[in-house]
Design a protein that fits this description.
Layout: H1 7-16, E1 22-24, H2 41-47, E2 55-57, H3 65-74, E3 80-82, H4 93-99
Parallel strand pairs: 1-2, 2-3
Helix pairs in contact: 1-2, 2-3
Length: 100
């Protein structure tokens, strides 16, 4: 995955490749660079428009409830969603998704 992708880059991906089915932007296991994984709610909301996505890896990005909720409610074709190691600013992503 490319850990330099933030919210602006996520918006560009969503606008440029609307039929995308596989997107891996998560941080590899064992690697941790606090400044790299910077996608926020705005980026996740943009990615939520990619309704053809079946695989999405956002491990170790910083999403809040708005971003996680947007993904959970819009990306109904997902067969793989990786939110591991995510800094959700105090919210549990599993609880947010189960509420959708």
């Amino acid at each position: 995955g490319n850990r330099n992708v933030g919210s602006e880059e996520a918006k560009a991906i969503a606008e440029s490749i609307p039929g995308l089915t596989h997107l891996a932007l998560g941080e590899p296991e064992g690697r941790h660079d606090e400044g790299q994984h910077r996608m926020l709610d705005e980026g996740a909301q943009a990615l939520a428009s990619l309704t053809a996505l079946r695989f999405l890896d956002l491990a170790k990005h910083r999403l809040g409830p708005r971003g996680v909720s947007a993904l959970a409610s819009s990306l109904t074709n997902l067969t793989h969603l990786d939110l591991s190691g995510m800094n959700t600013r105090g919210d549990n992503p599993v609880e947010i998704i189960s509420d959708e």
